């Protein structure tokens, strides 16, 4: 009896579905009508679909949907906005190459638009987010530095320039860290000239980074290993002038006084100051 009641209810459902008309399938009755293809939608409707996909966490699908607006309605008011949204959605979905391509297209087409700074910032982030540790090749880091610099140069008054400037400092420190890693490798193995060249790059090109004090100390160390006392003293003098309270200055000072190259008394600071003025600044009076 129970089985017959279930079959009866099922028959009622089928009858109801049949009564909806020949144009409505059983699947449509339970799931709703099939989603329209993008070719059937207006630019506004496609944009709304892309936003809905983005809100649902389907960033890659959203990017593809926004791209359809540019394909189907390239001259509509939604095309420009869809371009930047495609870049954003691709970036959020981890599709960095696609994000970079869409963002570059936006910057090229609308360089003076209010969202151009954001597009350039997205380009930079696609590199910055993929910076690897200093033990690996740093081409991506250099690309990040270049694109972050473009944000600051082209859009200095934008909200993104401030954050780009901070990331530039971190990127420079990363590049300096790579030079230090190689320099320490050479120093440890007694390749002092090669080590000196690496440490000089840090001192000359990355002097504002956190790596600079160690680079000056390592220069002092390498010069002493080669018997170049004058150069060692000059490096220590620069270190003492710019980073007088750093541990690296203390290490260099102990290295030099331990070999009786500089006085081991209260006159040492005056000695380094005099060396800095004479050797570095060229002021002999």
Keyword list:
single chain, 285 residues, mainly alpha, Serine Threonine Protein Phosphatase 5, Tetratricopeptide repeat, 14 helices, 72% helix, 0% strand, disordered N terminus
Task: Give the gist of this structure.
Part of the outer membrane protein assembly complex, which is involved in assembly and insertion of beta-barrel proteins into the outer membrane. The chain has helices at residues 2-19, 26-31, 43-55, 59-72, 77-92, 96-109, 116-128, 139-154, 159-188, 192-205, 212-225, 229-242, 247-257, 268-280.
Topology, number of strands: 0
Number of distinct helices = 14
Q: CATH first level of the largest domain: which class?
A: Mainly Alpha
3D shape: elongated
CATH superfamily of the largest domain: Tetratricopeptide repeat domain
Radius of gyration: 32 Å
The helix/strand series, from N terminus to C terminus, equals HHHHHHHHHHHHHH
Structure description:
The chain is mainly alpha-helical and 285 residues long. 72% of the residues lie in helices and 0% in strands. It folds into 2 domains: 35-174, Serine Threonine Protein Phosphatase 5, Tetratricopeptide repeat; 175-280, Serine Threonine Protein Phosphatase 5, Tetratricopeptide repeat, CATH 1.25.40.10. The chain has 14 helices and no strands. Helix 7 (116-128) runs antiparallel to helix 8 (139-154), helix 7 packs parallel to helix 9 (159-188) and helix 11 (212-225) packs parallel to helix 13. The protein starts with a helix and ends in a 5-residue tail after the last helix.
